[in-house]
Amino acid sequence: MANPFAGEAALVINGTPHVMKLTLGALAELEAALETGSLAELAQRFESGGFSARDVLALLVAGLKGGGHAMTAAELAAAEIAGGPLGAARAAAELLARAFLLPGEA
To answer: Among 26, 60, 103, 104, which one is most buried in terms of CB atoms within 10 A?
Structure first.
């Protein structure tokens, strides 16, 4: 079970729940993968609805890695995610938001 106070979010992949977390290392890899100027830029894309499927996939892969689950983008793209593309986008947005919440804001 994901702990929102620890910045965690859940994602069900192929019927199995996984805990995701954006560690500092995962965030650095995410910035490099998406070639964003900053994480604030990525957060703005999610807030405005201007994110791409590539953004969602990269964010989920980073979160899974930070949560201790080694999964490549290709493996995740081929997997069944609960809620489909919309469920994946919601989980990615939740993960990104939780990574930057202050204690008590969850």
So the answer is: 60
